[in-house]
Write a structure and sequence with these properties.
The chain has helices spanning about 40-50, 80, 105-125, 145-160, 185-195, 210-220, 225-235, 240-255, 265-270, 290-320, 335-340, 385-390, 390-400, 415-430, 450-460, 480-495, 500-509, and strands spanning about 25-30, 55-60, 65-75, 90-100, 130-140, 165-170, 200-205, 220-225, 325-330, 360-365, 370-375, 405-410, 435-440, 465-470. By secondary structure, the chain is of the alpha/beta class. Bound molecules: guanosine-5'-triphosphate and magnesium ion.
């Protein structure tokens, strides 16, 4: 490459792919005319291009002969430093020397640095198949909100089996429409991910297709947003054929606007999702028209499911058993409660979205009433738009409920926001008018006084009944069951035998 005294245009080396633990295999050797040594620009290029070395040779202005060589290389960081708060300097410098005095063996220097990177990677890597990521929050609002949101993103990431190596929050006046973050922050992130051996940035916000493209072009890293993370978790969890169809539909709806005719680089990155898993992986190798066709077909299939479920529900209504649905934020303990109430063994786990398929069980209440209890898919704030509609066949199960048990994990610091999110989604589903009991779960994990205060606070407006329970302890159930029985018998007199409310159901779509 040839440049002048003001600068040199470097070609886009990023197209030359390199392994995660390797440098680019290129050294940039150039001259500086004012004896300024290595500049910040030099160092940034070193990092962004992942060069082996950056060398600036001073030029003596009087005779044009070479002066000192200023040399920098990237520094791997050791695994124990990863966890410390102060970020270590990413560059190493060699003492400036005249060319004739250089006694460094470049190849062995680079080899040992690369070996160290690979070693760090092995140490920091609990599971060789896991993606390593940096979580990125960008906000123009309060930092505290961004931090709460990041805490949830971290839970989502670990539920998806991703290793989180660092978290970065940037507060900006305005979100950059193209790259979300400013250039400086982006460079910093890139250097950081290089040092940590991270191969993915997970953004705590919805990214536009264009933003994903610019970000992955600028960083060469896999770029995932919150919606895609949730979709990936769903696709890892989907068990039943019904659930798989619903997830695939939601994935395709997410993907469609991100497909650009004739340009499939962002596509191939997106299609793989996290670690290239998910049922859609091979199916996603298709163009937009075929994606649209497939969406149509899946929608028809889901419509058929909906009708089948509807028929099943009609039979149940004929049996005249009132339905009580357990709803709530993901990980609130819904499946645990259903299991404990009805001695079943629905999968309950300390990870988000353990349940995708609804389960119904019969339960005899203390006062000899028999009811059907439904376990449902968990809710979350800012659900990806296509997801709710994809899951409508499943969620319609809730429509026929006589009563909702809205389960809240009060041990989660974000319980307040979680109640609001669930209420909002119930409204979107047009089922907010069904009578509900707010059940404060995991009460064993917080102290009595806090529980009492929360319970008093929530019961204050008198809008709904509040009870506290611990789904892992049957002894705490009587007040809840008492309430359920009471509300059902009150309700019985008031309502007609409920037929299938086609209007309400169609509005869910
Ligand atoms: N300590 C304690 N842990 C609980 C309680 N209830 C549930 N858990 C735990 O919370 C975790 C989540 O429980 P699940 O029943 O899977 O939650 P869920 O609401 O069905 O979650 P999704 O299906 O993912 O929406 C599990 O590890 C349970 O053991 C409780 O009352 N006390
Ligand atoms: Mg569950």
């Amino acid at each position: 490459m040839i440049g002048d005294n003001r600068g040199i245009e470097l070609p886009d080396f990023k197209r030359i792919r390199v392994a995660v633990d390797r440098f680019r295999g290129l050294r940039c050797v150039h001259t500086h005319l004012r004896g300024e040594g290595l500049t910040q620009d030099d160092l940034t290029d070193l990092a962004l291009l992942r060069l082996d070395l950056m060398v600036a040779i001073d030029v003596n202005p009087t005779d044009g002969l070479p002066g000192l060589l200023n040399i920098a290389h990237l520094l791997p960081i050791t695994a124990d430093k990863v966890r410390t708060a102060n970020k270590p300097e990413p560059y190493g410098f060699l003492a400036p020397k005249m060319a004739s005095h250089l006694d460094v063996d470049f190849l062995s220097l680079i080899n040992s640095l690369e070996e160290e990177m690979a070693r760090n990677r092995r140490v920091s890597r609990q599971d060789s198949l896991k993606d390593r990521s940096i979580l990125v929050g960008v906000t123009s609002g309060p930092i505290a909100d961004a931090e709460e949101s990041m805490a949830e993103l971290q839970e989502l990431a670990s539920s998806a089996g991703i290793v989180v190596q660092d978290k970065v929050i940037q507060r900006r006046q305005a979100i950059d429409p193209k790259t979300v973050l400013g250039r400086g922050k982006l460079e910093e992130l890139l250097i950081r991910s290089l040092q940590l051996g991270a191969d993915m940035l997970v953004f705590d916000r919805e990214l536009t297709p264009g933003q994903v493209r610019s970000l992955s072009e600028a960083t060469d890293l896999k770029i995932i947003d919150r919606s895609q993370l949730i979709l990936d978790i769903f696709s890892q969890r989907a068990q039943s054929s019904e659930g798989k169809i619903q997830v695939e539909l939601a994935q395709l709806k997410y993907l469609l606007p991100r497909l650009i005719a004739g340009q499939d680089s962002a596509f191939s990155r997106l299609a793989g999702g996290i670690g290239g898993r998910g049922p859609g992986e091979t199916k996603l190798e298709m163009d937009r028209r075929r994606v649209r066709d497939r969406i149509n077909r899946l929608e028809k299939e889901i419509e058929a499911q909906r009708l089948r479920r509807h028929e099943r529900r009609k039979v149940r209504t004929r049996n005249n058993l009132p339905v009580v649905s357990i709803v709530g934020y993901t990980n609130a303990g819904k499946s645990t409660l259903l299991n404990a109430l009805t001695n079943s063994s629905v999968r309950a786990e300390q990870r988000m979205f353990a349940t995708l398929d609804p389960t119904s069980r019969r339960l005899r209440l203390p006062r000899e009433q028999e009811i059907i209890v439904n376990d449902t898919v968990g809710f979350i704030r800012d659900l990806p738009p296509g997801l709710l509609s994809a899951f409508r066949a499943t969620l319609e199960e809730i429509v026929d409920s006589r009563l909702l048990i809205h389960l809240v994990d009060v041990s989660n610091p974000r319980w307040r926001q979680q109640i609001q999110s669930v209420d909002r989604i119930l409204e979107e589903l047009h089922i907010a008018q069904i009578p509900s009991i707010l059940a404060l779960n995991k009460s064993d994990l917080i102290d009595r006084d806090t529980l009492k205060a929360i319970s008093r606070q929530l019961g204050q407006d008198g809008v709904r009944e509040v009870v506290s329970i611990s789904a892992t302890d049957q002894k705490t159930f009587p007040p809840l069951l008492e309430k359920v029985g009471e509300m059902l018998s009150q309700d019985l007199g008031l309502r007609d035998e409920k037929a299938f409310d086609a209007d309400r159901v169609s509005r869910i779509a």
